[in-house]
Amino acid sequence: MQAWFFLFLAASFETAWTYSLKYMTFDALKGLRWSTFYLPTVGLPILLPFVGYIVFGVANIYFFSQAIKQIPTPTAFAVWTAMALILIKAVDVFVFKTNWSFTELFFLTLIGIGIIGLRLYSAS
Question: Residues with Cβ < 8 Å from 118, sequence gap 6 or more?
């Protein structure tokens, strides 16, 4: 049971990692100077996505590695990817107010059913 919780945490951190990657700008990061990196209006909007990228990425890898110690690797990878996909779409719809369709909801529901099936019938 703990391994499945680790898998959910890994998918959550994967989702956060994805959005930190979306907001990271390498050109602005390269242009950042020591004299202004600590200012809330100059450095923080550039540094926070980069720090999030590192922290969320490491946490994602850690929790996924903990999960695959107890769950078969193919099952863990499939569930981790599917959960991250569902969470990314949920964040897009509920936080960023993007459009969604019933077709997307239908196929995301099928993915959710697949996750439940893998959970109930996995070899672990």
Answer: 75, 78, 79
